Structure of Amino acid ABC transporter ATP-binding protein:
Amino acid sequence: MLEIRNLHKSFGTLDVLKGVDLSLEKGKVLVIIGPSGSGKTTLLRCLNLLEMPSAGSLKLGDSVLEFGTGRKPGKAEILKLRQSTGMVFQSYNLFPHKTAIENVMEAQIIVQKKDKAAARKRSAELLAKVGLSGKEDSYPHQLSGGQQQRVGIARALATDPQVMLFDEPTSALDPELVGEVLKVMKQLAAEGMTMVVVTHEMKFAAEAADTVVLMDDGIVLEQGRPDQVLRNPSSERAAQFLNVLI
Ligand code: ADP
């Protein structure tokens, strides 16, 4: 489903990703952990081209894009890849002047050109799926952080992405609201959604991930099954990072 080869990303002279190789099968969950500044968010943003990689290649479904070869990906290729992903942001990024259901409808109308009635029907189903039936007409400021993030998940699902990308989806939430968002994510995983999740929630990583990737300083330091990476890392550096968390 997803294949990343030798991916590099620099901001000016700052090399943030220094050759990342990862692959993910359909229906699997990849959780990315690592110290702050190690490049986790940048990697995730490269996957939907919110950041343009400096070099390497990216395969998602039947889209294959190469970077740094002189031939830049065209607009149509970029759009296609972007539309195969659904992104959930740390700070929700909902439109404040639109209701929950309007937030979920937006991309279906603008990007998928669905008619309003069809978009509304699908959005109501998605809001029900994330446990928000009855909140369709609430504005973001009338919802808790956990509810807003669940709207964010429904919105990302609305365009039927091949892979869902989560960028620290619970780190802006009060601790008592984290569980309701993780529950929805676990439910999606159990239904067979392909997911890449950047998180500091080690329990989620242990329980929901098929593969855990530990990044450090722009490279993949460890990758493997959660029990291998979290309990029995092969490098001293990884053990140090994990010890700090425990
Ligand atoms: P993480 O998600 O692991 O905390 P990030 O991917 O957010 O790490 O950041 C990795 C490094 O890239 C940091 O040093 C950060 O300052 C830098 N960085 C991220 N985005 C930009 C940007 N748009 N411009 C310049 N530097 C950036």
User: Anything to note?
Assistant: The chain has a mean pLDDT of 94. The first helix runs from residue 40 to 47.
